[in-house]
Design goal:
The chain is built from seven helices and eleven strands. The chain is an alpha+beta fold and about 210 residues long. The model has no long low-confidence stretch (mean pLDDT about 95).
């Protein structure tokens, strides 16, 4: 079983990281026919994207089963945010080349992202970070990757469009660790940013 990381957080969130090692035929055998005939899956042409989606559904189904949640598939709302069909559980998903990450919470919005630190991240530094955040990152690629994923996780938690990553998503270090702040007209809250290293990747989540 390709579960690489599983954790129940003090917040009540449950996290699963699934390694992407299975072939398409194996993944399909683990999913109900209702998932395999999903319109979203049928629209996917690229083999890699199809494999990615199938893997994510298997991982989500695995975590749902562990939590005794009925798995009736995954849909997206009008903003493109994924949700579990026929359940009130909140959920967020992240994909990378090697891993699928899933986080679920019974009632609080959540966000998750997994990335491998790469030098190409430096290119978008001015477009995603404030001057204060750029100073905090310094020349540390791992910190840059954490900040990158933290903003992605905050964006997924908020779950609506029209977000400016510099103005509306802010990060700062505190005595409690890294904190994220979402500043929108209809939403203004601070969230803890948590992380876990998995091989060369860094998993970041927030609740």
């Amino acid at each position: 079983m390709p579960v690489r990381f599983q954790k129940e957080c003090a917040s009540g969130a449950h996290i699963l990281v699934w390694e992407s090692i299975e072939e398409e035929i194996q993944l399909m055998s683990e999913l109900p026919s209702s998932i395999l005939t999903d319109a979203e899956l049928e629209k996917i042409i690229t083999p890699r994207k199809k494999l990615e989606m199938l893997t994510s559904r298997v991982a989500i189904r695995h975590l749902a089963k562990y939590l005794n949640i009925s798995f009736d598939g995954v849909k997206k709302d009008e903003h493109g945010k994924p949700y579990l069909v026929n359940t009130k559980w909140e959920m967020s998903i992240t994909h990378s080349k090697n891993f699928i990450g899933v986080i679920m919470h019974p009632h609080l919005p959540v966000g998750i992202d997994i990335e491998k630190p790469q030098t190409k991240m430096w290119r978008i530094l001015p477009r995603l970070y404030s001057e204060t955040e750029i100073k905090a990152v310094g020349n540390n690629l791992e910190t840059l990757s954490v900040y990158w994923s933290a903003k992605e996780a905050l964006y997924k938690l908020y779950g609506k469009r029209g977000v400016d990553f510099v103005k509306n998503l802010r990060l700062h270090e505190s005595t409690e660790g890294l904190m994220g702040e979402i500043i929108m007209p209809n939403y203004h809250k601070r969230h803890h940013i948590l992380q876990e290293k998995i091989e060369d990747y860094i998993l970041v989540w927030t609740v």
